[in-house]
Amino acid sequence: MANSLRDQLLKAGLVTEEQIEKATSNKKKKPHQKRTNHPKSKKVAPKTNQNKKSESSDLAQFYQQRAQLERKEKQEENRRKQEAAKLKKERRQKIGKLIKEHALDTEAGDIRYNFVVGTNIKYLFVTKQQQQQLAEGELAITFLGGKKCLIPVETGKQIIAIDPDKIVILPK
Predict the structure, then answer these.
(1) What is the pLDDT of residues 27-71, one digit of tens each?
(2) Which of 35, 70, 93, 171 could form a disulfide with 137 if both were Cys (CB 3.0 to 4.6 A apart)?
(3) d(C-alpha 151, C-alpha 169), whole Å
(4) Residue in 39, 33, 8, 160 with CA at minimum distance from that of residue 99
């Protein structure tokens, strides 16, 4: 019947001999093509596994790069902190040396001298001469190891130049 239909279509001129041959050859190839394009085919499965492997390896590579970057940032931050601590220590030593070299003796003082630090009133015992020098603006007050120290104003200015956060009470 199929052959008779083919003959009728040829006689009517609706199809050519080439078209018929092509149609019959396509029928033979279709079952074969369906097998190779089938989703459960062995050829397709490795591709999806490779895609998953490449995706997972890309993801793993991304996380590895991110972890490396975070480690580098953390190392850089630690290096900056260590450098800042080193500079702070050097400044403290420099200031401590300046104060020790120029500090005046307050052991013999018997006059109470009051001064303000922030909102607190502090005091220091000084001699009459030191009291006069404080009044004239020749001396300043600072702290070293929790102890109040009298120093020349120039030394106080040097200390402030080294560390502006250091407490130095300068005369006005």
Answers:
(1) 655 555 555 555 554 444 445 555 666 667 888 899 999 999 999
(2) 171
(3) 10
(4) 160
Q: Which two tokens stand for residue 35?
A: 């097998």
Q: How confident is the model at residue 126 (pLDDT cuts 50, 70, 90)?
A: very high
- The CA R_g of the chain, rounded to the nearest whole Å, is 47
The Cα–Cα gap between 15 and 105 comes to 123
How far is Cα 86 from Cα 94, in angstroms, rounded to an integer? 12
Q: Which two tokens stand for residue 119?
A: 């909102």
CB atoms within 10 A of CB 29: 9
- Per-residue confidence (pLDDT) for residue 28, from 0 to 100: 58
The DSSP code sequence of the chain is -HHHHHHHHHHHTSS-HHHHHHHHHHHHHHHHHHHHH-TT-TTHHHHHHHHHHHHHHHHHHHHHHHHHHHHHHHHHHHHHHHHHHHHHHHHHHHHHHHHHHHPBP-TT--EEEEEEETTEEEEEEE-HHHHHHHHHT-EEEEEETTEEEEEEHHHHHHHHHH-TTS-EE---
**Is the predicted pLDDT of residue 97 greater than 80, yes or no?**
yes
Show me where the domains of the chain are located.
Answer: 2-37, 97-169
The DSSP bridge partners found for residue 113 are 124
Task: Please state the pTM of the whole predicted model.
Answer: 0.55
